[in-house]
Structure to design on (109 residues):
């Protein structure tokens, strides 16, 4: 499971640095003779949890990046994104939004 806030159409730099540190040839992936990467991870699924004060306008930048790494480099075919968005919008019930996300995590694991 990876959990990160949605910041500026992506995720925090600390997560990017972590991903760079663990995305290592011979540890999390290797290359076929033709240069295509393949995964060495043994897990079969990944749950990505995102929180946002407003709407998440596109999954392509945060979750999409992690999803493609999981599929192309780590060999994790099943990925799920659980979102808790709109937390800072006046009138929204942040506690209910978070509770819904927790239920989504529970169903995904």
């Amino acid at each position: 499971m990876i959990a990160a806030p949605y910041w500026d159409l992506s995720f925090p730099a600390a997560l990017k640095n972590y991903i760079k540190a663990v995305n290592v040839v011979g540890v999390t992936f290797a290359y076929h003779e033709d240069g295509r990467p393949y995964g060495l991870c043994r897990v079969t699924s990944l749950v990505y949890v995102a929180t946002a004060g407003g709407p998440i306008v596109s999954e392509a930048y945060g979750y999409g990046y992690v999803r493609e790494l999981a599929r192309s480099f780590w060999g994790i075919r099943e990925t799920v994104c659980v979102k808790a968005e709109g937390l800072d919008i006046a009138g929204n019930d942040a506690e209910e939004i978070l509770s819904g996300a927790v239920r989504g995590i529970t169903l995904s694991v």
Notes: Residues 9 and 61 are 6 Å apart (CA to CA). The chain has one domain: 2-14+22-94.
